[in-house]
Each structure stands twice: as C-alpha cells, then as structure tokens.
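Follow-up to my post from last week.
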Amino acid sequence: MNHLDIDKIRKQFPVLDQQVYGKPLVYFDNAATTQKPLCVIERERDYYLHENCNIHRGVHYLSQMATEAYENARKTVAQFVNARQAQEIVFTRGTTESLNLLATSLGQLLVNEGDKVVVSAMEHHSNMVPWQQMLMRSKGELLVIRMDKKGVLDLNHYEELLKQRPKIVSIAHISNTLGTVNPIKEMIAMAHKYNIPVVVDGAQSMAHQVIDVQDLDCDFYVFSGHKMYAPMGIGGLYGKMEWLEKMPPYQFGGEMVDTVSFEKTTFNKVPFKFEAGTPNVGAALGLETAVKFIQSFDRQEVEAYEDELLEYATEQLANIEGTRFIGQAPKRNGLISFVIDGIHPYDLGTIIDKMGVAVRTGHHCAEPVMTFFGIPGTVRASFAMYNTKEEIDIFVKAVERAANMLK
Amino acid sequence: MTIKEIQDSIVEEFSMFDDWMDRYAMLIEMGKECPIIDPQYRNDNYLINGCQSRVWLHAELKDGKIYFTADSDAVITKGIINLLIKVFSGQTPADILAADMGFLDEIGLKEHLSPTRSNGLLSMVKQMMLYAEVMNNN
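User reply:
Got it. Predicted complex:
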C-alpha cells in the first residue's frame, strides 16, 4: 500500500503541471471530471497499440485476448464495488446513460399508467429528466423528497412519499451541487420495507468513498469512469442479478442478441443483453487501471486527506466577506459550493479563471436546486486526491481579489 | 460618429492596458454605465439565450436610428453588452447590418466570440443584428 505522497501522485498527472495565462494551473473542477494518471493513459494507448480488436465474436487470437481483457475489467469493477458476481456490472458510457437505461428498461418492467417514481430535490438533471420524461409518457408522477436550507433531505417527507407506493426510488449518493452525503443505506432500507427498488446515482462518490453495494443493499448503483480517474466514454451500472434478468433490453443490435430471424429475436444473457453495439473496450481497460490506481492507496487515508482539503478550503473562504455556502449539511464530501453577496458567480469564475484557477460556475445541471436557494448559480470548487492546501491558498486569494474588483 | 470611428476609439482605449485585469476592470466600469432597460421589458421576451448570466436587450427605432437598452445580472456581461451598445446605439439599421466586428479581436475579446463561450457575446451580436434586420425592413 502506497503512503499518501501528494508530490509523487501529482507526477502521475502531467496535465496538472502546466501554466494557463502564465499562471500555474489550479484544477478544482474535479466533480466535472478528474484528470487521468499516466497509468490509465498508457493502458488505453497500449490497447490501441497492441490489442485493439472487436470482442466476443472473433475466433482469432487478438479478439480472444481483447474479450478476456474486457471481461477481466468487468471483474475488477465488480470487486471494487463488492458485487456478488461480475455479471452484475453492465458497462455503459457513464452515469447519464446508466440512468437512461434504467428509466427505459426498469420503467418498462415496473411503471404502468399513473405510477410514481421518487427522486430528491438535489438531483442532477441526469437523475431527474430521464424519469420525468418516462413518467410523461406513462402519465405518471414524479415525487420529490424535500430538503432544508442546509441541503439535508427530509426523511419524514421521504417516508410520506414511500407510503404513496412509488415503483422506483432514485437518489444521489453525494450531491454534485451541495456536496451533501445522503444517508443512502438508511434510505434504501426504508424503501425496501415497502418493497421498492432503489437506484443510487454514484457519480460523485466512486472516486472518494468505499462503495459496497452488498452492504448498502441498493438495487442499482450507477457511475461514470471519467469522474474517478478513468477515461471519458465509460461508466457502469451495478444491478442485482434478479433485476437485470427480469429487465428488458434498452438498445438493440450487435452483441446483445442470441438468435435473430425476421420474425423474432431472442436476447443474450446478462450483462450482454444491455450492451448493444461495439463497447468502448479501450476505455473499459482504462477504467480497470483507474480502479487499481485508486486501490493502490489506503482508501481511509485518501478520504481523510480529501476531507482535510474540504475543511481547510471552507475555513479560508469563510474569511472572505459576504461568502455564503450553498450546502451546509453536516456530512459533505469532495466539493464546496458558494456565492458571494452581490457578485454573480459567472463574474467571479471569469476573473479567477484568468488567475489560473479552474472552477465550475453556474447551475451545475441542477436548476431546481438553484431555484430552491433563489440564486442564479454558484461557484463550485471540487477536489481530488492530487490537490493541495497551497492550491487552496491560491484559489482563496484569487477569489478575494476578484471579489474586490467586482464589488 | 460612425460605427468604425467608435470602434477605433474603443480599440484605442483598450490598447492602453496590457494587463487583462485592467481590461476586465474597464469592462466592469462599462457594465456600471450601461443604459438600463425599462423595467417593463426586463422579462423573458427580451432575454438573450446562450448566456450563463441573464441578459435583457431592448431596441427602439427613432428617426431612422436604433437605440438599445439592456441589463444583466452579471457585471462583466453587462460591460460586454454596453460595449456593443456604445458601438451600435444611434446608428441606422443598414449601417449596423454592414458593420465589421473585427474590432473585438483587437481589444482581446476574441476568445469571447466563440460559440462555446458561456457569456454569449455571439448571441448578443446576433440579437442586435436581428433587431437591425427587422427594423431595416420596416
């Protein structure tokens, strides 16, 4: 196990070592996408240099090798989230595709006319719009768990909603705008009392927390590779086998079929029936390497370090006059959202960009959250294991300077 | 002044700064001087799409010339729209339609012209041109 040596870690991420507008880059947009370590980049490159082949159908050497590598990647991911078996992992393009798959396929299986689905008030659009659109077609209703002004979900209200017998619950593990860590284990248990399956949006948690799907007892857990040091274009969906077996396919064609005639098609088994078309093999191998990269550290140590960064940044920002934190849940992870009174987040982001600091500004694909807080957007700084307190100092100084200019 | 003359004077003003911070400070100042839209037009009908901040723009034809007013909730955006207003307000629709926007390059705002930029400078220019086109046909 590697001891956390941030300098050494940063050397794995060449993209961090550059100047923008003549200033050293401070990359605090990790909730949008993390940077990729050399080992991940090299793994994907290697695949295209030596192993590239379409999988599952060739009898020849390269195809067999690529198939084996791809299936090994599935095993690695399954073991990473402690799934019971590798087949419970479906590779997708990412969280959004996983959620669309579920809204379509699980929706088709469970949701009939007039039925309800529960999401929370802090969801990313990707965990809201697919359900909303599906429910529009089925003339159903989207039920939304309320939250308070600190960004904490109201579990009493959740219980009330469960009593309305929704067919599916879908909630974020960690909010991408507020940083709130939701008590998903408890929320899953509450839904299960009513025999309602629970989907967890893990986009913001996989890189930061140890995920054990058996311990959580979630029915589905979805995530994006690119937010956990892996390449873009790959992600996944964990699903309990009993659900995956019952669910109809989402897209058709390619490897997902069993037998085909013009009259009828039968489908391949799980997980292949959900993986239509040629998968992104190179990225899947990159994801496997990213998982191994994360596993090469003491996870508790990484989590503690990232919490320390969050705490330090919060303390330092609080010294700036007019700072208001959006999202003050007692349990937060990975990111800070804030506004400064009288200053538009866009203005602040534009100025600190010129000082080399990369943050996200805007509504973060969660417009209802902004409406709830009555703000046009926030400035969001999000951290990864390669960030440092020195970078936070640069960031806070930049914010201070920008605020003085804009006031 | 003609559009070209106004553009030249803006370029001259901006050329005094080689530091980006001074340039932004200038835009911020310009934002504070923006001729503000009448509250009755500060609604969704006058909102320009494609900006991370909200921008409202109104145009009025008086004696054959167009007069713009605007507002934005972000001060840099307000500065940018006021920059365009300085160039176009009080000009005829035909002159506005014929204007060359190359001066934006010269004042270092070229990066803001790309359609992927979130501040919507391109959308603002388009909206002003659209007003000019409609008013030119009337």
